[in-house]
Amino acid sequence: MGAVVTGLRVTADKDTGVAVVTLDRPHRLNAIDLGMRDELVATWQQLRFDDSVRAVVLTGAGERAFCTGLDRDAEVPQPNSPYMTDDPLLHIGPKSNDLWKPVIAAVNGMACGGAFYLLGESDFLVADPAATFFDPHTTYGMVSAYESVLMAQVMPHGEAARMALMGTAERLSAERAHAIGLVTELTAPGGALAAAAAAAEVIAGYPPEGVQGTVRALWAAKEAAVKQGFAQAPHLVSLGNLPLDRQAELFRSRRSGFRSR
């Protein structure tokens, strides 16, 4: 399988059994528009049926960002009701699409906000030393709901809470992310993709039935908490988000500085 589609690049090595899915909008810091959203869903669905692919690496194009979440220029219509909200990124992850092949994220540059839908459904993370993690929601008058539920499953509670609440004022360094277990391997500069691919190749060499069953078992250990958290998320977003014009005002007036830790 090999394809180039708008915003997403997918390549597969049938000899190793590893596919690489690349978020390919570096000019927009790999932010996800609705076209890329649909492509991600279609890609995970396609990979379910491709038996030649036994492990997946997920990464972002360019050096500046893995993914910066939802593209702010994306138009996302919402129902005119406080009881219904449509989150455009809710189903962009592999687990949400019933893909139980292992997915390893190779993180380079910024990973923030909606990127956590992808990282929270990856099986483990490998990071470049320049990678940083942060959640901008509170800065712009938004509730970090789905993102925080997912990250609370892969980070100590205090770390997840601090990242969500500090907004754009603070970024989690790759070194700190490695120290707390969010990142499993910190590579040499520029080495994240190669390291993730090497791990994926090892896993792809094992019998897929056992690997996929293990992936499913690991997710089962936390999916009940995710489902309960997600059940609360639409109401929290509806109650807590500021109107879009006020969010935009806060975005325009944001401060450029931040602290790394």
How many structural domains does the protein architecture include?
Answer: 1
The outline comes out as globular
| Oligomeric state of shown chains | single chain
CATH fold-level topology:
2-enoyl-CoA Hydratase, Chain A, domain 1
Give the class-level CATH name: Alpha Beta
- What distance separates the N and C termini? 40 Å
Class per helix and strand makeup: alpha/beta
Residue-averaged pLDDT, rounded? 94
- What's the architecture in CATH terms? Alpha-Beta Complex
Unreliable runs, pLDDT <50, ≥5 residues? none
Task: Give a structural overview.
The protein is of the alpha/beta class. The chain has one domain: 2-enoyl-CoA Hydratase, Chain A, domain 1 (Alpha-Beta Complex). It is 38% helix and 18% strand. A seven-stranded mixed β-sheet has the order 1-2-3-4-6-8-11, sandwiched between helices. A five-stranded mixed β-sheet has the order 5-7-9-10-12. α1 links the parallel β3 and β4 (55-60). It is globular.
List keywords for this structure.
12 strands, five-stranded mixed β-sheet, 261 residues, Enoyl-CoA_hydra/iso, globular, alpha/beta, seven-stranded mixed β-sheet, 2-enoyl-CoA Hydratase, Chain A, domain 1, Enoyl-CoA hydratase/isomerase family protein, ClpP/crotonase-like_dom_sf, 8 helices
